[in-house]
Design goal:
six-stranded antiparallel beta sheet; 13 helices; 15 strands; 32% helix
Length: 449
């Protein structure tokens, strides 16, 4: 009996040590992810806690967190087995922010000034569109392609939440999963990077920034980083050190769930390669771009307003909220929430080469720039947009370029077909969702292409 008890004690000790070695260092990130996810999902989109835990937080390790919502205080606390409690606060107009113990919640804060779109039918406004039938669209085939992208009978293999298809400026298909509607705000994750790029595009059109000059960062002036341009940063081609691996503790996860000033994390990294010689995907780079953008304005209010007045509200994406880090900088890498319809408006802006219902928001050359492969990316990346130039999706036109986000968010822009396709969900291609087949099915429903 004593031997059995000793053996059990040894097993417990080994299990405890294994937990401490493998899991404990991740607890900050687990509870941080969970608190931020619950706060945004609940207060921005009014999702119940149970739905968030079963869907948004249904991720290995993240599902270990226990979450509590304070409705009156508008905050969420999360912990793992009572350890490493984290807190995310919600502020109307700013969304949710993951904070640390030193954050002063009583400190006054500024809100971006917003404007409403004109009372026009979607997509140029928010009034429901009048049905339009195209003789060259096989609607039965289109419906099947869209329906096939959703799970049936409670399965969790595809996990699509929303699909919107625009063809020749008209809504030809739209579908939502149970619990979601055309008014549901959905996190775009890294599709936010394309929003950030667009803000630079407007500044460039206004002649207020030259992306080919060295990045205006004083800390880089006396070392190897002094030659890095904004263009290099937009192309993910800066040569700066960065690790982006969401399955482990890395630069990206520590930035998103621990850093007060997310842009500073990449800014402080050393150069590993010469600029424009080594492509490396980095969310830190995009948050550094957001920080650079912030420094182009004299006041915080001007910075907050610009994102919305220049792009977001300008094209009627009135549902969109871009959330901030603790320093008041937009998390340009990851934290834009909007309806699927509003995400499709963003695609339409690029489909029409920066023109929005007659007004040139972005220069045509900027759109060409963002959709042209950057050096060393093997045809897969432009300026904060992904490309199909290298044939990643073999049954999709090579001119397709797209916004892409964690868990399979996509805004696909296909100029040769005059089409925008939006898919929001919880599964990526390497997790079982067939993006090539999904896009192919929709494309093939349009005849005489």
């Amino acid at each position: 009996m004593k031997k059995i008890l000793k053996l059990l004690a040894l097993v417990v000790v080994i299990a405890f040590l294994y937990f401490g070695f493998t899991t404990y260092p991740k607890l900050d990130l687990i509870s941080g992810f969970s608190a931020k996810s619950v706060a945004s999902g609940h207060f921005l989109d009014r999702r119940p806690l149970d739905l968030i835990q079963k869907t948004d937080n249904d991720i290995k390790m993240i599902d270990l967190a226990s979450n509590s919502i304070d409705e009156a205080g508008k905050f969420v606390t999360s912990n793992v087995y009572g350890l490493k409690e984290r807190k995310a606060i919600y502020r109307e107009g700013l969304g949710a922010t993951l904070i640390n113990d030193d954050f002063d919640v009583s400190k006054p804060y500024l809100l971006p000034k917003r404007s409403k779109s004109k009372p026009l039918p979607f997509p140029y406004g928010n009034i429901d569109p009048v049905d339009t039938l195209f003789s060259n669209v096989d609607y039965s085939k289109l419906k099947k392609a869209v329906d096939d992208s959703f799970d049936k009978n409670g399965a969790k293999t595809k996990r699509t939440r929303a699909v919107v298809v625009l063809y020749k400026n008209k809504l030809i298909a739209e579908k939502y999963d149970t619990g979601f509607t055309k008014d549901s705000k959905i996190l775009g994750w890294s599709m936010t990077k394309s929003i950030t790029s667009s803000a630079f595009g407007v500044l460039a059109k206004q002649g207020k920034i030259d992306i080919y000059k060295p990045a205006p960062i004083a800390e880089w002036k006396n070392d190897d980083r002094k030659n890095i341009t904004i263009n290099d940063l937009l192309h993910m081609n800066s040569g700066l050190e960065w690790e982006e691996n969401y399955s482990t503790i890395c630069d990206a996860t520590k930035m998103l769930f621990e850093a007060e000033d997310m842009g500073k994390v990449q800014m402080d990294k050393p150069a590993q390669f010469k600029p424009n010689t080594h492509w490396n995907y980095s969310s830190g780079t995009t948050n550094l771009l957001s920080r650079i953008l912030k420094n182009q304005f004299k006041t915080q209010q001007e910075y907050l307003d610009f994102w919305y007045s220049a792009v977001i509200d300008k094209i009627g994406m009135n549902s969109m909220i871009v959330e901030q880090d603790m320093s008041g900088t937009f998390v340009g890498s990851s934290y834009a929430w909007a309806t699927a319809r509003d995400w499709s408006k963003f695609g339409l802006l690029y489909l029409h080469k920066g023109n929005w219902n007659g007004e040139q928001i972005l220069d045509e050359n900027w759109v060409k720039y963002t959709s042209t492969p950057t050096n060393t990316s093997e045809g897969k990346y432009g300026a904060q947009f992904w490309l199909n130039a290298g044939g990643k999706f073999p049954d999709v036109p090579r001119d397709m370029y797209y916004c892409s986000g964690y868990q399979g968010q996509m805004v696909a822009i296909i100029p040769s077909l005059d089409m925008v396709i939006v898919r929001m969900g919880l599964k990526e291609a390497d997790q079982g969702f067939d993006f090539n087949g999904f896009l192919k099915g929709i494309i093939e429903s349009v005849k005489n292409k």
